[in-house]
Amino acid sequence: MSIFEVRHQRWAQVILQSAIGGDRIPHAYLFHGPDGIGKETLARAYAQLLLCEKPVCHNECSSEYAPDGKQWFDSCGLCSSCRLMETDSHPDYHLIHRRLIRFHDDPSVRARKGLDLGIDVIRQFVLDAAHKKPALGSRKVFVLRETEKLTSAAQNALLKTLEEPPPGTFLILICRALDSLLPTTRSRCRSIPFSPLPISFVHETLQGRHSDINADLIRFAAALGEGSLGRSVQCLENGLNEINRNVITPLKDLSVLSALEWAHLLEDQADQLAHRSRLGDEEINETDAVRQALTQILTLVATFYDDVLKLTHGQQERCCNTADLEIVRQAGSRMKHDWIPRSIGWTVQAEAQIHLNANTTLCLENLAMRLAHLYAPSR
Asked: Where do you find CATH 1.20.272 in the chain?
């Protein structure tokens, strides 16, 4: 793939191109930023460029990419190395992830669940492989996915290779946040930050890929992703719009009597969403899957009340729940305007408590009762 296919990550592109152009390529990079914004895609495209037999030099590029009219480089897309990359069969491109534990030489290691990116995977698939000669050219590239899941032992084992890798060996670590890695790991990598994508770009991309899906749903998924194309796609694939409607419909007129029932509804919806998530990743444990699902559902709640706030201030065009504006409008008519920010704050607080392993049922019931008291009594 062309390195120019990765959009709206100009700063990352500039750093990588400057290294290529100046022939000062670091042996270890650390790509960090939210999921679903192009980190792994750019890592793969950059790996293809590093492995390409005849890189192409562009003297003119779109202003989105080129800094001050400098030359930019891309893989040719035609050589044997590029063709192997396109078919996911390049012997010198190594994508490292926790599920490789299933292919470990040791049967006792294969029997474990790949919840973390542990030292056994790192030793066999990175350290041992890094010291072997490249199969084709003179370079090897290792892209390590989800490095926030690297254990401390695995990171310590990586340190020497990060600092002094074998000749022609390049490593690209990908993570959500820098503080998820040890300082010793971070200090040995060239850090490259990635930014959320423009929501307009996410919306446009979703429209192009899913022209058969309702426009309101596309808008909702794009807004909910908060600049993450991957998260927006996941929203569509997991049927989050259906869950969203189930969650927000009772919020048009939440009462003390219906609050506990709504809290239990949230738990049921979280269980459904967690089940769908685990179908795509069997190795994630049930507790983590439910916690992640509850985070998504509470995000739906916070987004709903944010829409209520926007609607009361005449900003209907900025609302996410465009297909359910009547529900948003009814909730707004029942709440005092200065109370609405409290609902958002309490929802965010509940999400934080769940991440700290608070009792889920009590946490959701407490949130429901607090929200119910923000509605005016029905007449």
From this structure: 238-372
Give the global pTM. 0.85
The H helix count followed by the E strand count for the chain is 17, 7
| 3-193 has CATH 3.40.50.300 classification | yes
Q: Which amino acid is at 271?
A: D
**Cα(61)–Cα(288) distance, integer angstroms:** 44
How many CA atoms within 13 Å lie on the side-chain side of 340?
24
CATH architecture of the domain covering 238-372: Up-down Bundle (1.20)
Strand 93-96 and strand 140-144: the pairing is: parallel
Q: Rounded distance, CA 39 to CA 20, Å?
A: 18
Q: What tens digit of pLDDT does each residue of 121-139 get?
A: 999 999 999 999 999 989 9
As annotated, the residues of the chain forming the CATH 3.40.50.300 domain(s) are: 3-193
DSSP E strand stretches across the chain: 28-32, 56-58, 72-74, 93-96, 140-144, 169-175, 190-193
First to last CA, the chain: 63
* Res 287 pLDDT > 80: no
Mean pLDDT of the 212-220 span: 87
